[in-house]
Structure formats: C-alpha cells, structure tokens
Design a protein that fits this description.
Blueprint lengths: L2 H14 L5 E7 L6 E6 L31 E5 L1 H12 L8 E5 L24 H4 L11 E2 L14 H7 L3 H12 L7 H4 L25 H14 L9 H5 L6 H16 L27
Parallel strand pairs: 1-3, 3-4, 4-5
Antiparallel strand pairs: 1-2
Helix pairs in contact: 7-9
C-alpha cells in the first residue's frame, strides 16, 4: 500500500469514527507540481488526500488558536511536527486537540523554471529541505513509512559564517539591499508557527510605534524585530523564506541567531522536545554576562 493510500485510509478511519472533526493534509493542485493544503470534513472526501514530492506547505500554522471544542487530524512531516511542538509550548494549542500522523520526508522538490512535466527525481530539492535537520516527525500518534536517515547539516551555517567575514559597513549594505525589496506583505509572519501572537505589534496603531510605511527604515525595523521575537523559538521550517515573494534570505537572520544562541547557551533545537525550555525563556546563574 502506498503512502497516499495509507493516508486516505487513516483519514477515513478517523472521520468515520468521529475521532476528529476534520483532517488537514494535501491534495493535488491545479498544476502537476502543486500539492496544496486541504481540509477534509467527510470520509467520502478522503480520496482527495495525496502524498508526493510537492507537499511542501507546512500545515502547523493552520492550528493557531484552534477552537477549544474541535479536535483535528493532521499529517505532519518533520517541519510540521516541530511547528506543532512550538504551538503547544506557546499554549496556542492543546496536545489532546490533535491526532498527529507522522510521515518521514525525503525532501520536497522545486519545479520552479520547469516548462513541462518532469520526473520529481530530476528536480532539485527545495532549499528548506536541503537545510532540514529533522526529516522525521518529532511528535506523532502514528507513523506512516520508514524513518529517514538523518544527515549532518552543520554546514547550514556556512552562509552566516561568510557574512561574518564582511565589515560592519558591508553587512549593512548587504541587508539594506535585501530589506529594500520588502513589500511588507507579512507572508513571513503569517506562515510562521512561532509568530502566533493574538495581535501582532505591526497591526497595532500607536503614535511613535511601528510605522506602516514601506521604506528601508521601517522594513529594517520590522525584520530585525521579528527575528528577535522568534530567537530561540524558530523551528527552522524555512517557510518564511520560501513564502517570501521578494526572495529575501530571511533564514540567514534566523540562523545567525540560532548559531549565537548555541554558542552562548549550548546546543538547542527549537520544536523538538515538548519539555525543553527555550534558552531565552529561562535564566541560569551560569548564563554568559559579557554585556555587564
């Protein structure tokens, strides 16, 4: 039985039994290289669900502020599952509200630039998948498929280390060029499981607070503030960068902070352990105090 058949069978079982109110998974989109999120509420519609090399969207953000009365079935890759852990730790979701079906992931394919249907194996991996450190779900109720061998991805910090070689002025010029492209669509925020505040500060109106103007200064303020808000909490799902229509290398900022936190407080992977506390969410007497 294929992964797709197992997904459909599990969805029918959960819906028929009334275990969940609905299922979130992926269905085939308009084009051959699109597999888009889908909400399935009836067992008869479970045949819509699929699994292939284009199920790239992380589904965890659909559960932000889930109604307390609902219980949802969710298919999770490694990145999706870390987003779930993030939401539970941030008390945006209760563990008992979700039935998690884990699917080990060998990486999704990027069909950008392909003019005709191509075998997925001949397409490059999505950038977020090249950098993925947890291809297997870290939390689940049932696992479909065999776990993927985890490769060393310590080289994901190489682009940060290259930037570190630049002078302060060169770094500023590099990031200024990136932030000037931003159109403030907030796709990065909206797709991030760590950006789960009930009201984002950029949506508030306060004199002297964040301006709504789309210009370099305000764009810089937004991106730096957002990066600091998810510092120590970013699950490295890479959706912020993948969703950005202006190709801003947002994960470079996130990985810079991840690298610094690891160096200062020890190795920590956000969204992996439900019981682990983020380094910046606690205080230890032996924490570094170079700022004093």
């Amino acid at each position: 039985m294929s992964i797709t058949e197992k997904i459909q069978a599990k969805a029918k079982e959960l819906l028929d039994s009334g275990t969940v109110n609905y299922i979130i998974g992926w269905e085939k989109g308009t084009f051959w290289h699109q597999s888009t999120p889908v909400f399935v509420k009836k067992a008869a519609d479970a045949d819509k669900l699929i699994w292939d090399e284009f199920c790239i969207n992380s589904l965890s953000t659909y559960l932000i502020r889930l109604d307390d009365e609902l219980k949802v079935g969710l298919f999770v890759k490694g990145c999706d599952s870390k987003g779930i852990v993030r939401l539970i730790q941030d008390k945006q979701l209760k563990r008992e509200q979700v039935v998690l079906i884990g699917i080990p992931c060998n990486g999704m394919r990027n069909a950008k630039g392909a003019v005709e249907k191509t075998e997925p194996a001949n397409l490059p991996l999505e950038q977020k998948c090249i950098e993925c450190v947890h291809p297997n779900p870290v939390i689940y109720d049932e696992l479909i498929g065999e776990p993927v061998v985890i490769a060393d991805k310590s080289d994901r910090f190489n682009d940060v280390l290259e930037l570190e070689k630049l002078s302060p002025n060169e770094k500023y010029q590099y990031w200024a060029a990136q932030f000037e492209k931003c159109i403030r669509c907030y796709a990065c925020r909206n797709t991030c499981p760590a950006c789960n505040c009930k009201e984002c500060y950029v949506d508030q109106y306060r004199v002297g607070w964040q301006n709504k103007a789309v210009d370099l200064a305000e764009n810089q303020m937004f991106h730096v503030t957002r990066a600091m808000h998810v510092a120590g909490r970013c699950v490295e799902c890479g959706e912020c960068q993948r969703q950005c229509p202006m190709d801003i290398p947002i994960m470079q900022m996130n990985r810079k902070l991840i690298m610094e936190i690891n160096e200062l407080f020890g190795e920590y992977a956000a969204g992996v352990d439900l019981e682990a506390k983020p380094p910046l969410g606690q205080f230890k007497t032996d924490d570094p105090e170079e700022f004093m």
